[in-house]
Every structure is written in structure tokens, then in C-alpha cells.
Design a protein that fits this description.
alpha/beta; 7-stranded mixed beta sheet; 461 residues
Amino acid sequence: MIDNQDTIAAVSTPQGRGALGIVRMSGPKAISIARRIFSPKGKKDVLSISSFTLNYGWVKTNGSVIDEALLSVMRAPKTYTREDIVEISLHGGMVSLQKVLELCIRNGARLAEPGEFTKRAFMNGRIDLAQAEAVCDIVNARSQCSHRAAVQQLVGHLSNRIGRIRDDMAEILAELETAVDFPEEGIQFDSREEILRKVGHIRGECEAILATFETGRIYKEGLTVVIAGRPNVGKSSLINAMLRENRAIVTEIPGTTRDIISEEVEIKGLKVNLMDTAGIGEAKDKIDAIGIQKTMDSIESSDLVLIVVDLSEGISDDDKQIVTCIRDKKSIIIANKKDLPHKVREEEIGNALGKDIPIIKTSALLGEGIEEIEDLIYRMFIQEGISEKESPVITNLRHKEALQNLREALLKAERATKHGMSEEFIACDIRDALRHIGEITGQTTTEGILDIIFSKFCIGK
Ligand code: GDP
């Protein structure tokens, strides 16, 4: 437990009007400060209030009431920060909240820095760094998938797996260090092959976690899906059908969508950023040319392209050119206007545009085929089962980098073992590996890095 002499205070609910607002304090003086500013109903003394109880009363200054409130008292060590915590629940106006916060500060608290409550939970050993980061991710989650990944991290899926890897490495290190310290004592050590096998096994574990980052990134940030196709094939109508509302402008004049319209939808809990683009075709004027360039740029940075073609018109050279522009991007052909007489059959589309690209027939006008598109998008990017039970999915670039460094250190240890180098050298690489894995859970993270991590939190968290 670190010795935090000061007591911190912050408004923990969002700025602005709300039905309720909470001022939170944590630290050794939290309860005594609450006693000075809060008058409980009846003759109760705040100092003798039991832990984890809600108490009705008024916040007062110099005898005048600031607001009617509920005070919750949580006594150390079984609290969020492992320190004494009080929360004062007020009517949600900013004036009440600011006044009560000022009162806390006037009576001896200090304004909390962003994430400082959670930082104390970490510093006091209640959660590790990966779990603290998960708290921030839960607050910022904008889709079911990002929320689920963050909750899994908070409950400890990643921390537990990392903990097991760390224990295995510590065991190898202990062996190696004993071999260095007592070379002639006749103790039975692991053979070189055994060390190699163990280190290789750990590297495999590390690589398996690293491989989840792509899915993790999609969980956290969502997918960017570009809708491309020549003018008038039904791109705007498709985006409207996927949004299930009318946002993009649909007209019969080709080339209406000159700018890129970007909309967010959730597909099976996954955040998807849909981008309706200008048609890729011959630019008739300067604005057209800019639009086409923008389309090309957004295709470049997207995760998936929906290539829309018109079944009632068949496949043209422009359609083929679009597919050429998209090259190796993941894509789906949306054969639209299936409600009209077809000029082209499905296999002809495949022959013309590429047999490997999946085709889905739709009528954007009637909203048909939309669920098939959604199912396929989900299946293309989310490996079933990856989010299940104990297997962690990493979503954080910092964790990915630490795991990459860990893998490098393990590879070095394997090379040193293979080349018959002394135990001392191998131990040095394993120590390096332990330092990198400790960065994920926070055992070996520097103060500077911690400051950067917690500065991303909101005040009061
Ligand atoms: P964009 O230029 O590719 O964005 O195409 P729009 O979405 O603006 O659609 C062009 C025209 O095709 C409009 O008149 C739409 O109503 C019509 N359209 C779009 N999708 C369909 C469809 O599935 N069936 C039919 N019959 N018409 C459609």
C-alpha cells in the first residue's frame, strides 16, 4: 500500500445537467471532510457511519444548505482505491456540484488528476495496470464488442494468462540462476533441450496472444467499410438500407454523392463505420476529380470494400476498373437491384470481376439481402470463439508492443541456448523478457508511462 497523504476530490459524473451528480473523495481525510460539510438527518455523526451505507442529509456551508444529498461511506481497505472513499450524490446541476467540490477542497481535499482514483487502485495493488486500462476502455466503449473485450480484460483474462507466463519464465530463470551460482554442486538441472522446449512453449503462448490483436483492434475501434461503385448503381440506397433510415441523398442523377458520407452502424455488436463514396469513373469536372481521389484514399485506409454493381444493367468496363483499383483489399460484390429484370447472371459477375470475391444479391430499395451482408461482414472479421471464456483478446497497442519485445527476448534466449552459450547469457535474456511482460501488468512500468496512461482517463475516474 502506498502512502498517499492527500485526499483527492472530483466530480465523477459528466459535465452538464443531469438527474444526479456525484462528488467523490478518496484518502485518509475523506470521511472527516465529509463530516464538516454534510449534515445527516437525525443525530448521526458522519464519523460513526457504518461502511457501505447510504445516508440522507444536506450539504451545508456556514449553516446554509447547498443541496439535498445522499452520502455513501466506504471504509478502507475494501474500496475502489483501497482508501476511505465517500461519494456525495446530489441533484445533478453543475452549480451544486461545483459548490460541493469547492467545499471539499476548502476543507482539505485536493482536486484529483485524470484517472487518479483508478491510479490509486493500481498503486495500492487492488488491480493491475491492464485492468486499470480496461476501466478506461469500458468508459470509452462505443459498441457491444469493445465493451465486452474491455470487461474481459477488467475481470482478469489477460492478467491471468500473463501471470501464468510470468510464473513459467520465473521458474526457468531460477533454474538458470542456480546453475550459474552452484555450477559444481551436482544439482540436476534441465538439459539444454529442456530449456529450449520450455522457452519455445512460452514464445508460442506469447505469439498466440499477439495474434488476437487484429481482432482486438476491430473490437475496440470497429471496422471501416467503404461502399464503392459507379454512379447510380445504388450505393446511397444501400447505405440507407444498412442504416435503416434516410441519410444519404438518393437521386436519379448519376454522380450525386460527391463528398464522402460517413455513418456509424452496429453489426452484431461490432461498430462499423460505413463510408458512401463518390463513384469511381471518369471525372467530368474538378469537383468530380477531387471526389474520386477521396474515394481512392478511403478505399486505401479501409478494412473492407463493398463493390456495388447493378444487376439490371450488367457489368461494364467501369465496374472492372473499380475492382482493379481495389486490388488486394478484402471485398464483397453487392449485386444490387435484384428486384428488376437481370442483364447478368451471378457466375458471369464472378467471371468478369473475380471468382474469389463473394457475391450477395440485394435490393437496396426493398431492403433485401441486407442481413446477409451483415452476417458475412461479421464472419469475415470475427473468428468465432475468440471472445469466449478464458482466451484474452488484446486491444491495446501498448500490450502488443510489450508482447513483441517479449517475443524478441525469448528468441534471443532460444538462440543463446542453441549456440551453447553460458547460463548467464540465457538468464540475461529471460530477465529482459520478464521486464517486458511486467510492462503489461505494471510491475515494471516507469512512472512516465504510468502518467501517460492515466492522463487519458477522465477526471473523477
Ligand atoms: P448511387 O449513385 O450509387 O449512390 O445510387 P443511388 O442510391 O442514388 O440510387 C440510384 C437510383 O437507383 C435511385 O433512383 C434509386 O432509387 C435506385 N435504386 C437503388 N437501389 C435500387 C434497387 O435495389 N432496386 C431498384 N429498383 N432501384 C434501386
